[in-house]
Amino acid sequence: MNAKMTQTSERLGQTTNSSGKRRRVIRIVLTAGLPIAVLLLSFTLGRYSVSLSQMADIFRARLLGLPDPGPDSVSTVLFNVRIPRIAAALLVGGALAAAGASYQGLFRNPMVSPDILGASAGAGFGAALAMLLSLGPGGIQLLSFLLGIGAVALTYSIGSLVSRRGGAVLSLVLTGIVISTVFGSFTSIIKLAADPDNKLPSITFWLMGGLSLVGLDDLAILAPLVFIGLIPLLLLRWKLNVLSFGEEEAQSLGVNTARIRIATIICSTLLTAAAVSVSGMIGWVGLIVPHLSRMVVGPNYKVLLPVSALYGATYLLLVDDIARSALTMEIPLGILTSLIGAPFFIVLLLTGKRGWD
Amino acid sequence: MLEIENLSCGYGSQPIVKEVSFSVQAGEIMCLLGPNGAGKTTLFKTLLSFLKPLGGTVKIKGQSTEGWSRQMLARSIGYVPQAHGAPFPFSVIDVVIMGRTAHLGLFVSPSSKDRSIADEALQMLQITYLRDRVYTELSGGERQMVLIARALAQQPDILIMDEPTSNLDFGNQIRMLEQIRRLSNRGMTVVMTSHFPDHAFLCSDRVVLLRRGLPFLAGSVKEVVTSENLKSAYGIDVEIAELTAATGQKVKTCVPLMRTGSQRLEELS
Description:
- The structure holds 2 protein chains of 2 kinds.
- By secondary structure, chain A is an all-alpha fold.
- Chain A contains 13 helices and no strands.
- In chain B, a hairpin with a 2-residue loop joins strand 1 and strand 2.
- In chain B, helix 4 (112-124) packs across helix 5.
- Chain B starts with a strand and ends with a helix.
Protein backbone atom coordinates (compact mmCIF):
# COMPACT_ATOMS: atom_id res chain seq x y z
CA MET A 1 0.00 0.00 0.00
CA ASN A 2 2.91 2.27 0.82
CA ALA A 3 4.55 1.50 -2.49
CA LYS A 4 1.36 2.43 -4.27
CA MET A 5 1.23 5.69 -2.41
CA THR A 6 4.80 6.64 -3.38
CA GLN A 7 4.01 5.70 -6.97
CA THR A 8 0.99 7.94 -7.16
CA SER A 9 2.79 10.74 -5.42
CA GLU A 10 5.66 10.43 -7.91
CA ARG A 11 3.23 10.58 -10.79
CA LEU A 12 1.59 13.58 -9.20
CA GLY A 13 5.03 15.14 -8.87
CA GLN A 14 5.65 14.71 -12.59
CA THR A 15 2.43 16.30 -13.70
CA THR A 16 2.91 19.22 -11.34
CA ASN A 17 6.43 19.62 -12.74
CA SER A 18 5.36 19.99 -16.37
CA SER A 19 2.38 22.19 -15.54
CA GLY A 20 4.68 23.99 -13.12
CA LYS A 21 7.00 24.91 -16.00
CA ARG A 22 4.11 26.29 -18.03
CA ARG A 23 2.91 28.22 -15.00
CA ARG A 24 6.37 29.68 -14.53
CA VAL A 25 6.39 30.92 -18.13
CA ILE A 26 2.95 32.49 -17.73
CA ARG A 27 4.12 34.01 -14.46
CA ILE A 28 7.18 35.63 -16.03
CA VAL A 29 5.24 36.97 -19.03
CA LEU A 30 2.47 38.40 -16.84
CA THR A 31 4.76 39.80 -14.17
CA ALA A 32 7.58 41.28 -16.22
CA GLY A 33 6.53 41.53 -19.88
CA LEU A 34 2.95 42.73 -19.70
CA PRO A 35 3.48 45.76 -17.42
CA ILE A 36 6.32 47.05 -19.63
CA ALA A 37 4.29 46.53 -22.81
CA VAL A 38 1.26 48.33 -21.37
CA LEU A 39 3.43 51.17 -20.13
CA LEU A 40 5.04 51.72 -23.55
CA LEU A 41 1.67 51.49 -25.26
CA SER A 42 0.22 54.09 -22.87
CA PHE A 43 2.80 56.71 -23.88
CA THR A 44 1.77 56.48 -27.52
CA LEU A 45 -2.01 56.25 -27.15
CA GLY A 46 -4.35 59.19 -26.94
CA ARG A 47 -6.00 61.93 -28.95
CA TYR A 48 -2.56 63.24 -29.77
CA SER A 49 -0.58 60.18 -30.80
CA VAL A 50 3.11 60.12 -30.02
CA SER A 51 5.22 57.38 -31.60
CA LEU A 52 7.70 55.42 -29.51
CA SER A 53 10.69 56.76 -31.48
CA GLN A 54 9.44 60.34 -31.03
CA MET A 55 9.16 59.69 -27.36
CA ALA A 56 12.63 58.16 -27.16
CA ASP A 57 14.06 61.22 -28.92
CA ILE A 58 12.40 63.58 -26.46
CA PHE A 59 13.57 61.57 -23.45
CA ARG A 60 17.13 61.41 -24.80
CA ALA A 61 17.15 65.17 -25.39
CA ARG A 62 15.83 65.88 -21.88
CA LEU A 63 18.41 63.61 -20.29
CA LEU A 64 21.27 65.22 -22.22
CA GLY A 65 19.94 68.72 -21.56
CA LEU A 66 19.41 69.42 -25.29
CA PRO A 67 16.44 71.42 -26.62
CA ASP A 68 13.31 69.35 -27.35
CA PRO A 69 13.30 67.94 -30.85
CA GLY A 70 10.20 68.28 -32.99
CA PRO A 71 7.11 70.40 -32.30
CA ASP A 72 6.71 71.82 -28.76
CA SER A 73 3.20 70.47 -28.49
CA VAL A 74 4.46 66.86 -28.41
CA SER A 75 6.63 67.30 -25.35
CA THR A 76 3.96 69.46 -23.70
CA VAL A 77 1.37 66.73 -24.15
CA LEU A 78 3.82 64.10 -22.99
CA PHE A 79 5.08 65.80 -19.84
CA ASN A 80 2.11 67.85 -18.68
CA VAL A 81 -0.77 65.57 -19.60
CA ARG A 82 0.16 62.05 -20.50
CA ILE A 83 2.91 61.20 -18.00
CA PRO A 84 1.01 62.56 -14.96
CA ARG A 85 -2.02 60.61 -16.04
CA ILE A 86 -0.02 57.40 -16.53
CA ALA A 87 1.61 57.88 -13.13
CA ALA A 88 -1.79 58.46 -11.50
CA ALA A 89 -3.23 55.31 -13.06
CA LEU A 90 -0.25 53.27 -11.84
CA LEU A 91 -0.44 54.70 -8.31
CA VAL A 92 -4.24 54.42 -7.95
CA GLY A 93 -4.37 50.90 -9.41
CA GLY A 94 -1.45 49.68 -7.32
CA ALA A 95 -2.86 51.24 -4.15
CA LEU A 96 -6.35 49.78 -4.59
CA ALA A 97 -5.06 46.30 -5.44
CA ALA A 98 -2.61 46.23 -2.52
CA ALA A 99 -5.31 47.42 -0.11
CA GLY A 100 -7.75 44.81 -1.46
CA ALA A 101 -5.23 41.97 -1.20
CA SER A 102 -4.37 42.95 2.38
CA TYR A 103 -8.02 43.16 3.40
CA GLN A 104 -8.77 39.75 1.85
CA GLY A 105 -6.14 38.20 4.12
CA LEU A 106 -7.19 40.21 7.17
CA PHE A 107 -10.88 39.39 6.75
CA ARG A 108 -10.11 35.83 5.61
CA ASN A 109 -12.35 36.22 2.62
CA PRO A 110 -11.52 36.42 -1.08
CA MET A 111 -14.70 38.46 -1.72
CA VAL A 112 -13.55 41.52 0.22
CA SER A 113 -12.69 44.80 -1.51
CA PRO A 114 -10.83 47.87 -0.17
CA ASP A 115 -14.04 49.82 0.47
CA ILE A 116 -15.39 47.27 2.98
CA LEU A 117 -14.80 49.53 6.01
CA GLY A 118 -16.33 52.60 4.38
CA ALA A 119 -13.24 54.34 2.96
CA SER A 120 -14.75 54.90 -0.50
CA ALA A 121 -18.18 55.91 0.77
CA GLY A 122 -16.57 58.44 3.13
CA ALA A 123 -14.25 59.77 0.43
CA GLY A 124 -17.15 60.08 -2.03
CA PHE A 125 -19.18 62.05 0.49
CA GLY A 126 -16.19 64.28 1.24
CA ALA A 127 -15.73 65.11 -2.44
CA ALA A 128 -19.46 65.76 -2.95
CA LEU A 129 -19.53 68.04 0.11
CA ALA A 130 -16.48 69.95 -1.11
CA MET A 131 -18.12 70.50 -4.49
CA LEU A 132 -21.35 71.65 -2.87
CA LEU A 133 -19.30 74.17 -0.85
CA SER A 134 -17.57 75.24 -4.10
CA LEU A 135 -14.09 74.37 -2.82
CA GLY A 136 -11.32 74.13 -5.42
CA PRO A 137 -9.67 70.91 -6.68
CA GLY A 138 -7.25 70.92 -3.70
CA GLY A 139 -10.16 71.26 -1.28
CA ILE A 140 -12.04 68.40 -2.96
CA GLN A 141 -9.04 66.13 -2.69
CA LEU A 142 -8.35 67.06 0.94
CA LEU A 143 -11.91 66.76 2.22
CA SER A 144 -12.39 63.51 0.33
CA PHE A 145 -9.19 62.03 1.77
CA LEU A 146 -10.01 63.14 5.32
CA LEU A 147 -13.59 61.85 5.27
CA GLY A 148 -12.43 58.55 3.75
CA ILE A 149 -10.15 58.10 6.75
CA GLY A 150 -12.83 59.46 9.09
CA ALA A 151 -15.39 56.90 7.90
CA VAL A 152 -12.99 54.02 8.61
CA ALA A 153 -12.08 55.49 12.00
CA LEU A 154 -15.79 55.59 12.82
CA THR A 155 -16.22 51.99 11.66
CA TYR A 156 -13.23 50.92 13.73
CA SER A 157 -14.40 52.63 16.95
CA ILE A 158 -17.98 51.38 16.71
CA GLY A 159 -16.74 47.94 15.64
CA SER A 160 -14.47 47.75 18.68
CA LEU A 161 -17.42 48.58 20.95
CA VAL A 162 -19.52 45.87 19.28
CA SER A 163 -16.72 43.31 19.49
CA ARG A 164 -16.00 43.55 23.20
CA ARG A 165 -17.52 40.10 23.44
CA GLY A 166 -15.21 38.72 20.76
CA GLY A 167 -15.57 38.28 17.00
CA ALA A 168 -13.55 41.37 16.11
CA VAL A 169 -13.41 40.69 12.39
CA LEU A 170 -17.11 40.07 11.82
CA SER A 171 -18.12 43.13 13.89
CA LEU A 172 -15.83 45.29 11.78
CA VAL A 173 -17.30 44.03 8.50
CA LEU A 174 -20.88 44.51 9.67
CA THR A 175 -20.18 47.97 11.06
CA GLY A 176 -18.40 48.81 7.79
CA ILE A 177 -21.56 47.97 5.84
CA VAL A 178 -23.60 50.27 8.09
CA ILE A 179 -21.15 53.16 7.85
CA SER A 180 -20.90 52.79 4.06
CA THR A 181 -24.67 52.96 3.75
CA VAL A 182 -24.89 56.02 5.98
CA PHE A 183 -22.23 57.89 4.01
CA GLY A 184 -23.89 56.81 0.76
CA SER A 185 -27.12 58.40 2.01
CA PHE A 186 -25.26 61.60 2.98
CA THR A 187 -23.97 61.75 -0.58
CA SER A 188 -27.52 61.38 -1.90
CA ILE A 189 -28.66 64.23 0.33
CA ILE A 190 -25.94 66.44 -1.10
CA LYS A 191 -26.95 65.51 -4.65
CA LEU A 192 -30.50 66.48 -3.74
CA ALA A 193 -29.33 69.86 -2.43
CA ALA A 194 -26.87 70.55 -5.26
CA ASP A 195 -27.68 72.95 -8.07
CA PRO A 196 -28.90 70.67 -10.89
CA ASP A 197 -27.42 72.89 -13.61
CA ASN A 198 -23.75 72.84 -12.70
CA LYS A 199 -22.94 71.24 -9.34
CA LEU A 200 -25.00 68.08 -9.64
CA PRO A 201 -23.42 67.03 -12.96
CA SER A 202 -19.92 67.63 -11.66
CA ILE A 203 -20.62 65.64 -8.48
CA THR A 204 -22.12 62.81 -10.51
CA PHE A 205 -19.20 62.86 -12.92
CA TRP A 206 -16.67 62.84 -10.07
CA LEU A 207 -18.38 59.87 -8.42
CA MET A 208 -18.13 57.88 -11.65
CA GLY A 209 -14.38 58.04 -11.31
CA GLY A 210 -11.74 59.15 -13.76
CA LEU A 211 -8.22 60.45 -14.15
CA SER A 212 -8.82 63.13 -16.78
CA LEU A 213 -8.39 66.01 -14.35
CA VAL A 214 -5.21 64.74 -12.68
CA GLY A 215 -2.28 67.14 -12.80
CA LEU A 216 1.28 67.15 -11.51
CA ASP A 217 0.29 68.81 -8.22
CA ASP A 218 -2.16 65.97 -7.44
CA LEU A 219 0.65 63.51 -7.97
CA ALA A 220 2.89 65.34 -5.54
CA ILE A 221 0.38 64.49 -2.79
CA LEU A 222 -0.75 61.09 -4.05
CA ALA A 223 2.67 59.51 -4.54
CA PRO A 224 4.02 60.00 -0.99
CA LEU A 225 0.72 58.87 0.56
CA VAL A 226 0.74 55.68 -1.52
CA PHE A 227 4.30 54.88 -0.52
CA ILE A 228 3.61 55.61 3.17
CA GLY A 229 0.69 53.18 3.02
CA LEU A 230 2.38 50.53 0.93
CA ILE A 231 5.75 50.15 2.65
CA PRO A 232 4.51 48.94 6.08
CA LEU A 233 2.15 46.51 4.33
CA LEU A 234 5.05 45.11 2.30
CA LEU A 235 7.12 44.75 5.47
CA LEU A 236 4.32 42.98 7.36
CA ARG A 237 3.07 40.96 4.41
CA TRP A 238 4.21 37.55 5.59
CA LYS A 239 2.14 37.91 8.78
CA LEU A 240 -0.99 38.27 6.62
CA ASN A 241 -0.59 34.58 5.70
CA VAL A 242 -0.83 33.64 9.35
CA LEU A 243 -3.70 36.04 9.97
CA SER A 244 -5.75 34.40 7.22
CA PHE A 245 -6.00 31.30 9.42
CA GLY A 246 -8.11 33.21 11.91
CA GLU A 247 -7.68 35.17 15.08
CA GLU A 248 -7.05 32.38 17.59
CA GLU A 249 -4.78 30.30 15.40
CA ALA A 250 -2.69 33.31 14.47
CA GLN A 251 -2.37 34.13 18.17
CA SER A 252 -1.34 30.57 18.99
CA LEU A 253 1.34 30.86 16.30
CA GLY A 254 2.75 33.89 18.08
CA VAL A 255 1.18 36.86 16.26
CA ASN A 256 -0.12 39.88 18.12
CA THR A 257 -3.26 39.94 15.99
CA ALA A 258 -4.70 43.19 17.32
CA ARG A 259 -1.55 45.09 16.42
CA ILE A 260 -1.19 43.63 12.93
CA ARG A 261 -4.90 44.22 12.28
CA ILE A 262 -4.81 47.91 13.18
CA ALA A 263 -1.59 48.43 11.19
CA THR A 264 -3.15 46.76 8.13
CA ILE A 265 -6.35 48.79 8.45
CA ILE A 266 -4.48 52.10 8.81
CA CYS A 267 -2.25 51.41 5.79
CA SER A 268 -5.05 50.09 3.56
CA THR A 269 -7.27 53.03 4.48
CA LEU A 270 -4.49 55.48 3.68
CA LEU A 271 -4.07 53.80 0.28
CA THR A 272 -7.79 53.66 -0.52
CA ALA A 273 -8.61 57.19 0.66
CA ALA A 274 -5.60 58.66 -1.16
CA ALA A 275 -6.53 56.81 -4.36
CA VAL A 276 -10.25 57.67 -4.27
CA SER A 277 -9.59 61.33 -3.41
CA VAL A 278 -7.69 61.65 -6.70
CA SER A 279 -9.60 59.31 -8.99
CA GLY A 280 -13.15 59.19 -7.66
CA MET A 281 -14.95 55.90 -7.20
CA ILE A 282 -13.15 53.15 -9.06
CA GLY A 283 -14.60 49.80 -8.15
CA TRP A 284 -13.54 46.23 -8.82
CA VAL A 285 -9.78 46.77 -9.08
CA GLY A 286 -9.24 45.90 -5.41
CA LEU A 287 -11.41 42.79 -5.74
CA ILE A 288 -10.39 41.29 -9.08
CA VAL A 289 -6.69 42.01 -9.22
CA PRO A 290 -5.79 40.14 -6.01
CA HIS A 291 -7.84 37.20 -7.37
CA LEU A 292 -6.01 37.20 -10.67
CA SER A 293 -2.67 37.53 -8.89
CA ARG A 294 -3.50 34.63 -6.59
CA MET A 295 -4.23 32.47 -9.62
CA VAL A 296 -0.88 33.31 -11.16
CA VAL A 297 1.50 33.31 -8.19
CA GLY A 298 -0.45 31.49 -5.47
CA PRO A 299 -1.79 32.72 -2.12
CA ASN A 300 1.49 33.33 -0.27
CA TYR A 301 1.52 37.05 0.60
CA LYS A 302 5.29 37.15 0.37
CA VAL A 303 4.85 37.14 -3.42
CA LEU A 304 1.13 37.93 -3.68
CA LEU A 305 1.16 41.44 -2.22
CA PRO A 306 3.90 42.98 -4.42
CA VAL A 307 2.51 41.18 -7.48
CA SER A 308 -1.02 42.44 -6.71
CA ALA A 309 0.27 46.00 -6.54
CA LEU A 310 2.08 45.55 -9.87
CA TYR A 311 -0.90 43.93 -11.61
CA GLY A 312 -3.26 46.55 -10.15
CA ALA A 313 -1.11 49.32 -11.57
CA THR A 314 -0.94 47.61 -14.98
CA TYR A 315 -4.66 46.80 -15.05
CA LEU A 316 -5.81 50.31 -14.26
CA LEU A 317 -3.34 51.78 -16.73
CA LEU A 318 -4.70 49.51 -19.46
CA VAL A 319 -8.32 50.32 -18.62
CA ASP A 320 -7.52 54.03 -18.50
CA ASP A 321 -5.91 53.73 -21.95
CA ILE A 322 -9.19 52.33 -23.19
CA ALA A 323 -11.13 55.05 -21.36
CA ARG A 324 -9.22 57.85 -23.05
CA SER A 325 -8.79 56.41 -26.53
CA ALA A 326 -11.63 53.99 -27.35
CA LEU A 327 -14.28 56.59 -28.17
CA THR A 328 -14.05 60.18 -29.27
CA MET A 329 -15.40 61.20 -25.88
CA GLU A 330 -13.76 60.07 -22.67
CA ILE A 331 -15.50 57.17 -20.89
CA PRO A 332 -15.57 57.52 -17.06
CA LEU A 333 -12.98 55.08 -15.71
CA GLY A 334 -15.19 53.77 -12.89
CA ILE A 335 -17.81 52.66 -15.39
CA LEU A 336 -15.22 50.84 -17.49
CA THR A 337 -13.59 49.04 -14.56
CA SER A 338 -16.99 47.62 -13.65
CA LEU A 339 -17.99 46.81 -17.23
CA ILE A 340 -14.70 45.03 -17.89
CA GLY A 341 -14.31 43.73 -14.36
CA ALA A 342 -17.67 42.02 -13.91
CA PRO A 343 -17.53 39.60 -16.88
CA PHE A 344 -13.81 39.07 -16.34
CA PHE A 345 -14.53 38.07 -12.76
CA ILE A 346 -17.20 35.61 -13.86
CA VAL A 347 -14.71 34.01 -16.28
CA LEU A 348 -12.21 33.73 -13.43
CA LEU A 349 -14.83 32.06 -11.25
CA LEU A 350 -15.79 29.63 -14.01
CA THR A 351 -12.33 28.64 -15.19
CA GLY A 352 -10.04 29.15 -12.23
CA LYS A 353 -9.29 26.87 -9.35
CA ARG A 354 -11.46 28.05 -6.49
CA GLY A 355 -9.27 27.07 -3.60
CA TRP A 356 -11.61 28.30 -0.88
CA ASP A 357 -14.43 26.42 0.78
CA MET B 1 6.49 20.97 32.63
CA LEU B 2 2.92 22.29 32.86
CA GLU B 3 1.33 23.12 36.20
CA ILE B 4 -2.20 24.36 36.62
CA GLU B 5 -3.05 25.75 40.05
CA ASN B 6 -6.63 26.54 41.14
CA LEU B 7 -7.46 27.69 37.64
CA SER B 8 -10.96 29.09 37.12
CA CYS B 9 -12.02 29.97 33.65
CA GLY B 10 -15.05 31.14 31.72
CA TYR B 11 -16.46 34.02 29.70
CA GLY B 12 -17.22 37.33 31.37
CA SER B 13 -17.27 36.84 35.12
CA GLN B 14 -19.18 33.54 35.16
CA PRO B 15 -16.74 30.65 35.73
CA ILE B 16 -17.49 27.48 33.75
CA VAL B 17 -14.50 25.59 35.13
CA LYS B 18 -13.83 26.14 38.84
CA GLU B 19 -10.50 25.78 40.61
CA VAL B 20 -8.91 23.05 38.57
CA SER B 21 -5.40 21.93 39.49
CA PHE B 22 -3.20 19.38 37.76
CA SER B 23 0.30 19.01 36.45
CA VAL B 24 1.85 17.28 33.47
CA GLN B 25 5.46 16.09 33.46
CA ALA B 26 7.76 16.46 30.46
CA GLY B 27 7.09 13.76 27.87
CA GLU B 28 3.74 12.77 29.35
CA ILE B 29 0.41 12.65 27.56
CA MET B 30 -2.54 14.11 29.41
CA CYS B 31 -6.02 13.39 28.18
CA LEU B 32 -8.81 15.81 29.09
CA LEU B 33 -12.18 14.06 29.25
CA GLY B 34 -15.64 15.36 30.04
CA PRO B 35 -19.15 15.68 28.66
CA ASN B 36 -20.27 18.46 26.31
CA GLY B 37 -20.53 21.75 28.16
CA ALA B 38 -18.27 20.71 31.03
CA GLY B 39 -15.71 23.30 29.95
CA LYS B 40 -13.03 21.37 28.03
CA THR B 41 -12.83 24.02 25.32
CA THR B 42 -12.96 26.86 27.85
CA LEU B 43 -10.09 25.31 29.80
CA PHE B 44 -8.11 24.89 26.58
CA LYS B 45 -8.69 28.48 25.54
CA THR B 46 -7.46 29.64 28.92
CA LEU B 47 -4.33 27.45 28.69
CA LEU B 48 -3.63 29.07 25.33
CA SER B 49 -4.35 32.55 26.75
CA PHE B 50 -7.22 33.18 24.32
CA LEU B 51 -9.20 33.78 27.51
CA LYS B 52 -7.88 35.46 30.65
CA PRO B 53 -8.06 33.18 33.70
CA LEU B 54 -10.70 34.25 36.23
CA GLY B 55 -8.40 32.97 38.98
CA GLY B 56 -5.40 30.76 39.56
CA THR B 57 -2.25 30.36 37.51
CA VAL B 58 -0.82 28.50 34.55
CA LYS B 59 2.87 27.69 34.99
CA ILE B 60 5.25 26.42 32.33
CA LYS B 61 8.60 25.11 33.59
CA GLY B 62 7.81 26.68 36.95
CA GLN B 63 7.07 30.17 35.57
CA SER B 64 3.67 31.80 35.53
CA THR B 65 2.60 32.67 31.99
CA GLU B 66 0.83 35.82 33.14
CA GLY B 67 1.92 38.81 31.05
CA TRP B 68 3.76 36.71 28.47
CA SER B 69 3.71 38.03 24.93
CA ARG B 70 2.06 35.99 22.16
CA GLN B 71 5.49 35.23 20.81
CA MET B 72 6.82 33.89 24.14
CA LEU B 73 3.71 31.76 24.62
CA ALA B 74 3.95 30.38 21.08
CA ARG B 75 7.54 29.34 21.66
CA SER B 76 6.39 27.19 24.60
CA ILE B 77 2.96 26.00 23.55
CA GLY B 78 2.02 24.65 20.14
CA TYR B 79 -1.69 24.46 19.35
CA VAL B 80 -3.20 21.87 17.03
CA PRO B 81 -6.79 22.89 16.25
CA GLN B 82 -9.35 20.52 14.79
CA ALA B 83 -8.81 20.04 11.06
CA HIS B 84 -10.40 22.97 9.26
CA GLY B 85 -10.52 24.73 5.92
CA ALA B 86 -8.46 27.73 4.94
CA PRO B 87 -9.72 30.71 2.93
CA PHE B 88 -6.86 30.45 0.41
CA PRO B 89 -5.23 27.47 -1.34
CA PHE B 90 -1.90 27.48 0.48
CA SER B 91 0.53 24.66 -0.26
CA VAL B 92 1.21 22.24 2.59
CA ILE B 93 4.82 23.39 3.01
CA ASP B 94 3.63 27.03 3.27
CA VAL B 95 1.19 26.04 6.01
CA VAL B 96 3.89 24.17 7.94
CA ILE B 97 6.36 27.05 7.60
CA MET B 98 3.78 29.30 9.31
CA GLY B 99 4.70 27.36 12.45
CA ARG B 100 7.97 29.31 12.39
CA THR B 101 6.20 32.66 12.97
CA ALA B 102 7.03 32.79 16.69
CA HIS B 103 10.74 32.59 15.87
CA LEU B 104 10.71 35.44 13.33
CA GLY B 105 11.00 39.18 13.80
CA LEU B 106 8.04 41.46 13.01
CA PHE B 107 9.13 42.35 9.47
CA VAL B 108 10.95 39.11 8.64
CA SER B 109 9.87 36.36 6.25
CA PRO B 110 10.99 32.76 6.81
CA SER B 111 14.49 31.79 5.69
CA SER B 112 15.82 28.57 4.19
CA LYS B 113 16.60 27.40 7.75
CA ASP B 114 12.91 27.73 8.63
CA ARG B 115 12.07 25.82 5.46
CA SER B 116 14.32 22.94 6.46
CA ILE B 117 12.83 22.85 9.98
CA ALA B 118 9.39 22.61 8.33
CA ASP B 119 10.66 19.78 6.11
CA GLU B 120 11.95 17.94 9.19
CA ALA B 121 8.52 18.26 10.79
CA LEU B 122 6.92 16.68 7.70
CA GLN B 123 9.52 13.93 7.77
CA MET B 124 8.96 13.20 11.45
CA LEU B 125 5.27 12.62 10.75
CA GLN B 126 6.09 10.69 7.56
CA ILE B 127 3.98 12.97 5.39
CA THR B 128 6.70 14.36 3.13
CA TYR B 129 4.64 13.14 0.16
CA LEU B 130 2.07 15.86 0.99
CA ARG B 131 4.69 18.64 0.86
CA ASP B 132 3.65 20.29 -2.41
CA ARG B 133 -0.04 19.43 -2.31
CA VAL B 134 -2.66 22.13 -1.76
CA TYR B 135 -3.83 22.17 1.86
CA THR B 136 -7.48 22.90 1.01
CA GLU B 137 -7.61 19.82 -1.26
CA LEU B 138 -6.53 17.34 1.45
CA SER B 139 -8.75 14.96 3.40
CA GLY B 140 -9.59 15.67 7.04
CA GLY B 141 -6.99 13.21 8.33
CA GLU B 142 -4.26 14.65 6.11
CA ARG B 143 -5.12 18.20 7.15
CA GLN B 144 -4.89 17.15 10.79
CA MET B 145 -1.39 15.74 10.19
CA VAL B 146 -0.33 18.96 8.45
CA LEU B 147 -1.56 21.02 11.41
CA ILE B 148 0.48 18.80 13.75
CA ALA B 149 3.51 19.30 11.51
CA ARG B 150 2.95 23.05 11.73
CA ALA B 151 2.88 22.87 15.53
CA LEU B 152 6.09 20.77 15.51
CA ALA B 153 7.84 23.34 13.30
CA GLN B 154 7.00 25.79 16.08
CA GLN B 155 9.36 23.71 18.30
CA PRO B 156 7.29 24.13 21.46
CA ASP B 157 7.71 22.31 24.79
CA ILE B 158 4.04 21.45 25.02
CA LEU B 159 1.57 20.42 22.32
CA ILE B 160 -2.10 21.20 22.95
CA MET B 161 -4.40 19.18 20.71
CA ASP B 162 -8.12 19.84 20.40
CA GLU B 163 -9.81 16.49 19.71
CA PRO B 164 -7.08 15.21 17.39
CA THR B 165 -9.20 12.17 16.51
CA SER B 166 -12.40 13.99 15.61
CA ASN B 167 -13.56 13.53 12.00
CA LEU B 168 -11.20 10.58 11.52
CA ASP B 169 -12.27 7.06 10.60
CA PHE B 170 -11.59 4.18 12.99
CA GLY B 171 -8.20 3.26 11.50
CA ASN B 172 -6.98 6.85 11.26
CA GLN B 173 -8.01 7.50 14.87
CA ILE B 174 -5.71 4.75 16.08
CA ARG B 175 -2.91 5.82 13.72
CA MET B 176 -3.26 9.35 15.10
CA LEU B 177 -2.96 8.05 18.68
CA GLU B 178 0.13 6.03 17.69
CA GLN B 179 1.62 9.18 16.23
CA ILE B 180 0.91 11.10 19.45
CA ARG B 181 2.55 8.30 21.44
CA ARG B 182 5.62 8.49 19.19
CA LEU B 183 5.87 12.26 19.76
CA SER B 184 5.71 11.78 23.51
CA ASN B 185 8.40 9.06 23.33
CA ARG B 186 10.59 11.71 21.71
CA GLY B 187 10.04 13.94 24.72
CA MET B 188 7.06 16.07 23.65
CA THR B 189 4.54 16.92 26.37
CA VAL B 190 1.01 16.52 25.03
CA VAL B 191 -2.31 17.78 26.37
CA MET B 192 -5.28 16.55 24.31
CA THR B 193 -9.04 16.36 24.57
CA SER B 194 -11.10 13.38 23.54
CA HIS B 195 -14.68 12.21 23.60
CA PHE B 196 -13.57 8.60 24.01
CA PRO B 197 -12.33 7.36 27.39
CA ASP B 198 -10.82 4.41 25.49
CA HIS B 199 -8.30 6.82 23.99
CA ALA B 200 -7.07 7.53 27.52
CA PHE B 201 -6.42 3.81 27.99
CA LEU B 202 -4.70 3.57 24.63
CA CYS B 203 -2.30 6.43 24.86
CA SER B 204 -2.33 8.65 27.90
CA ASP B 205 -0.41 8.77 31.16
CA ARG B 206 -2.70 11.11 33.04
CA VAL B 207 -6.35 12.01 32.84
CA VAL B 208 -8.35 15.03 33.92
CA LEU B 209 -12.09 14.39 33.98
CA LEU B 210 -14.32 17.46 34.05
CA ARG B 211 -17.88 16.92 35.30
CA ARG B 212 -20.79 19.33 35.09
CA GLY B 213 -21.72 20.55 38.57
CA LEU B 214 -19.24 18.21 40.28
CA PRO B 215 -15.59 18.71 41.18
CA PHE B 216 -13.00 17.70 38.59
CA LEU B 217 -10.94 14.50 38.91
CA ALA B 218 -7.26 14.22 38.05
CA GLY B 219 -4.77 11.41 38.29
CA SER B 220 -3.45 8.36 36.49
CA VAL B 221 -5.66 6.65 33.92
CA LYS B 222 -6.29 3.75 36.29
CA GLU B 223 -7.44 6.05 39.10
CA VAL B 224 -9.68 8.30 37.06
CA VAL B 225 -11.21 6.17 34.31
CA THR B 226 -13.41 3.92 36.43
CA SER B 227 -16.98 2.90 35.83
CA GLU B 228 -18.30 5.04 38.74
CA ASN B 229 -16.42 8.15 37.60
CA LEU B 230 -17.56 7.79 34.00
CA LYS B 231 -21.12 7.28 35.15
CA SER B 232 -20.97 10.43 37.27
CA ALA B 233 -19.53 12.44 34.41
CA TYR B 234 -21.52 11.19 31.43
CA GLY B 235 -24.69 9.88 33.11
CA ILE B 236 -24.59 6.45 31.46
CA ASP B 237 -23.70 2.97 32.69
CA VAL B 238 -20.19 1.95 31.75
CA GLU B 239 -18.14 -1.10 32.59
CA ILE B 240 -14.40 -1.37 32.29
CA ALA B 241 -13.28 -4.63 30.71
CA GLU B 242 -9.78 -5.96 30.37
CA LEU B 243 -8.80 -8.39 27.69
CA THR B 244 -5.62 -10.08 26.66
CA ALA B 245 -4.94 -9.90 22.96
CA ALA B 246 -3.40 -12.77 20.97
CA THR B 247 -0.07 -10.90 21.15
CA GLY B 248 -0.19 -11.06 24.93
CA GLN B 249 -0.87 -7.30 25.14
CA LYS B 250 -3.31 -6.41 27.90
CA VAL B 251 -5.87 -3.79 26.88
CA LYS B 252 -8.52 -2.05 28.98
CA THR B 253 -11.64 -0.79 27.33
CA CYS B 254 -14.86 0.96 28.33
CA VAL B 255 -18.06 -0.80 27.46
CA PRO B 256 -21.16 1.39 27.65
CA LEU B 257 -24.38 -0.41 28.58
CA MET B 258 -27.63 0.53 26.87
CA ARG B 259 -30.64 0.56 29.13
CA THR B 260 -33.37 -1.95 28.38
CA GLY B 261 -37.00 -0.93 27.99
CA SER B 262 -38.05 -2.08 31.47
CA GLN B 263 -35.18 -0.18 33.10
CA ARG B 264 -36.28 2.97 31.33
CA LEU B 265 -39.83 2.44 32.57
CA GLU B 266 -38.54 1.95 36.12
CA GLU B 267 -36.64 5.20 35.87
CA LEU B 268 -39.76 7.03 34.73
CA SER B 269 -41.93 5.70 37.57
